[in-house]
Records
---
Amino acid sequence: MTVISISGIRGIIGQDLTAEDYVRIGRAFGEFIGGKRCAVGRDTRSTGKMASDAVISGLLGAGCTVFDLGVTSTPAVFREVRKQEIDGGLIVSASHNPPEWNGAKFVLKGGRGIFEDELNQLLKIAETPKEGLKVGRVFLVEPRYPSDIVEYVGRGSCSGLKIALDLGGGAGSLVAPRVFRELGCRVMTVNGSPGVFTRDMDPTRDPLKALSDLVKSSGVDFAVAYDCDADRVVFMDSDGLKLPADYTLLLHLKHLADIGAMEDVVASIDTSSAVEQLVEEAGHRVVTSKVGEANVVRRMLEEKIKIGGEGSSGGLILSEFNLCRDGLLASALAAKAVHQSGGLKSIIEGLPKYYSLREKIPCIRENALRVVKILSEEEPGEKETIDGVKLRKPGRAWVLVRPSGTEDIVRISVEARSEAEAVGLMKQYREKIVKILQEG
């Protein structure tokens, strides 16, 4: 099944997506940006070269001038589009989906992702037969993204820090070790062969055993793991314990609070209450958005807020550098904070503690929407309905029920101060949802 959302187009190559589909996607996006300049990058999947060549062919047929960045991370393409004032960008990647998948992500002028209304326009163009053919040009370009990160974070600013990287066989394999060495770190790696995938593409799901074993045997100060296109990242402490995905955003915010530089934040509705508590205690506010990186960015632009994130997917967005989740930037800044604070544990000890659980129940979208409607109407107390329904409970606990945008499921997320309370909330609302579905 081809998945289409603001995160792009994804599917299994040869089953959902073919070379012809990529030509059509490239041609449509080229038309969408007016046949102007477009940057193209790809991750390390074996199908990447074929798909990239096909999408470039489509862009050239729309008259575009193409800057081929080769194998690179998603954030690198966003940065290149923004810094070089390019008219668009297209990334051949399925992000954290399995290796047999691939896809296409879209970047618009200014270096931001595509919004829902714009995606609908693009899809209409793709469905319209094209007549005639233009001839564009293609140039091979090496992005300056790695050097930009080193300059932004500070060359040598992590001097002596011992760091372990789980590169997941992805695009981060080509740039992350170099960046951390230039920051002054002593670097060790696992899964560092590009295109060789020995764990789940999504580091938020995988237990990261190889990284944990390396940490325990080598005495590193800090460890990180990336997905295939290096836009999401999770952290691991010096004991080899994988931290929740929300800590990608939380560690940065805690550092800002410690140095008195906290600002307002945009966070997706499924982000931990720890973010809200930390920001509000520092005298600032959290603005919530729908789940989805582009939705967070849209709210950031509307509210003129510089910091955003998707807690549950290990995402940090800093608008002054990139208008997308940037795993390498987030991990570089976290490493700097760990170095300056004298250790990761000292940062974590000052963070608010919450316990979260996430489950999903199979059902068609129509029934998932019915579940959300009934809970919105019948549940007492404070509610948010910008994406499904979020039910606020005492002590910053909450329950979020929302239809998936990509699967026939309803997602349930809960968070509370204790594991027992979270387990109780999950049991209570799972039973309610099953009852609603059975009554339908």
Note: The longest strand covers residues 101-108.
---
Amino acid sequence: MAVKKKKAEYRFSFGPWNIHEGADPFGPPVRESFTWDEKIRTYRKLGFTGIQFHDDDVADASLPFKAAMDRAKEVKKILNGEGLEPEFTAPRLWEDDRGIDGAFTANDPKVRRWAVDRTKRCIDIGNAIGTHKMVIWPAREGTYIREAKDAAAAYDLFVDYLNKALAYDSKLKILIEPKPNEPMDLAYCPTIGHAIGLAYRTKDPKRVGALIESAHAILANLDPSDEMAYAISHKKLWSVHLNDQNSLKYDQDKVFGSANLRRAFNQVMVLEEAAYGSNGEWVGLDIKVMRTQKRENSFLHLKNSRELFMKLVKVYRGINKKEVEALREARDYETLDRMILDALLGS
């Protein structure tokens, strides 16, 4: 008797930073910013039920510990009132003066101790709002010139940092989010292979997985769907940040599918075939509104990304899978290629 395959189930999340402020790095502000409360109230209206947080999205890093925990409890009440579930917290180590040359791979041991302390505080904030998942984006864990650090030692420091976080909370699950560059020129964790390799070096590899961002894979000149498939094969794809990217430029965080629809389809295909979401994983978005978009329509990038994802799910589910297998077996890739293009074109 054939075992019934699980079906992918999707629920969506994004972080409040995706409702981008009006600041423009090349000129004057282009629109008025939204308040924190205004951002939170948009989630359910846009069809989202999950929320991602940096630690200081919940409680300002300057707050004493007790005040930070009190604020986290207030945020939990707000989330409950809005019907929202926190997906994860992430320590924003890269925006502190102490972390400009890296936090847990810094040459200065005092900076490394600070990074661990702030990470423990982030874990406490996560527990207070109701999540045991923490994302580590090693933003400044790298160099501008290779001679600035001992790279082999830096990887050891990375593992030591992960171990200290795991030891602090036995319920914690860590998701490493790799990126090859920006803000650092040369990053120590550029791809999902690096992230998973680090996970296996920790004292509890079962509690360390990965979050794959589409644009980050593209910036490494890799295909996001292949990166996702690699993590899935290790049972370590615990979240995604879907977006899009035009070539090897700065991190653009474009609407999912807006730059390369076929590439977006392949990501959906991989997630569908793995029944992603059936174990509670979220489809996260990390996207920015277009720089000069007017304020009144500056939520559409989120709505559009979610809807385009679900349209591609419908396209994938409408393809004759037996015909795909027959074409694979026959090595008739030209016909298979045309079948996918026709499906995407609706013809």
Note: The longest strand covers residues 85-90.
